[in-house]
Amino acid sequence: MDASHFSHHRAGPPPATTLAELVVIVALIALVTGFVLPPFKRGYDRLQTRAAAQETMAAFFTARAAAIAGGRRTAVVFDQGRARVWVVASGDTLMARDLGASRGVTLVTNRDSMTFFADGLGLGGANLSVIIRRGGAADTVIVSREGRAKLGTKAR
Question: Which domain holds residue 97?
Answer without folding.
Answer: 19-151
